[in-house]
Amino acid sequence: MPVPKLQARIQAGPLVMGALLKHENRLRVLNCRYYKYALSTAGSILVQRASSFGGETLKSKEEVSFHCGFRRFAGKPVFSNQSLKSDQHLFQRFLPQSGWSVATVYGPVTFQPASLLLFKPNGQLVASGTLKNVKPDRVVLKRVIITGTPVKVKKRKAVIRYMFHSPEDIRWFKPVELATKHGLTGHIKESLGTHGDFKAVFNKPIKQHDTVCLHLYKRVYPKFPTMNPLSN
After folding, report:
1. Rounded mean pLDDT of the chain?
2. In what residue span(s) does the Ribosome biogenesis protein BMS1/TSR1 C-terminal domain sit (predicted)?
3. How many whole angstroms separate alpha carbon 81 and alpha carbon 97?
């Protein structure tokens, strides 16, 4: 900034200046702990359940603005629960209406402790929290359930249909354990035909009206925002 402009700015009022520490101009994966805010009918911000006041929902991978001190950057975070007993965390489609959640986002390196505010593009404050860590190897898993229907049942054995569509898929998922809505467990025995039917064996006799489920988990990553966070 030219010296005359700087002097004019100082004369106009107080001026706060800051500087970045080493490595703070680099892009990394940030993990932040957030608590959702809610707006009451009077417009005041309350740290209570957002559903009590009709708070807006915030979807994972939706572009929002992060405010950390004098720094502002855009991001598309993914939300996950905070599991203390495991290093694998379950993906959340929306920011929970109450309680803490962890947001994983691409952003500039920030040192702890740091307070962060989360704003929507329209300027509405959605959540506040703190920086948990700068760690790219946090595992966020999305749970997917594939279901099938028993078409032929004989005690502990059954023929399952509508779960797969080709024998290749059956061979690929054969090591995965099966489960039913009535609490049975089993495994795939062999493929039948070319349309995705297969034989399965369970630990107890299965009933015709039961539903067979295959629980799968997929790792989820945050999306890169439209604007580079380092250019904000």
Report:
1. 83
2. 1-220
3. 13
Given CATH 2.40.10.190, say whether it is the number of domain 142-219: yes
Q: How far apart are CA 181 and CA 175, in angstroms?
A: 20
Query: What is the sign of the dihedral through the CA atoms of 90, 95, 97 and 99?
Result: positive
pLDDT-derived band at 164 (thresholds 50, 70, 90) equals: very high
Please report, for residues 100, 108, 163, 192, the alpha-carbon distance to residue 195 in angstroms, rounded to integers and kept in the order given: 45, 50, 10, 8
Tell me where in the chain the CATH 2.40.10.190 domain(s) lie: 142-219
pTM: 0.71
- Residue 138: pLDDT over 80: yes
The fold adopted by the segment(s) 21-38+56-137 is Elongation Factor Tu (Ef-tu); domain 3 (2.40.30)
- Where in the chain are all domains bearing CATH 2.40.30.10? 21-38+56-137
Six-digit token string for 201: 């064996």
* Mean local confidence (pLDDT), 92-106: 87
Q: Which residues 6+ apart lie within 8 Å of 33 measured at CB?
A: 82, 100, 101, 102, 129, 130, 132
Q: Which of 176, 148, 177, 144 is closest to 162 using CA atoms?
A: 148
User: Is the pLDDT reported for residue 89 higher than 50?
Assistant: yes
Strands (E), 94-221: 100-108, 115-119, 125-134, 139-154, 157-161, 178-180, 185-192, 197-202, 212-219
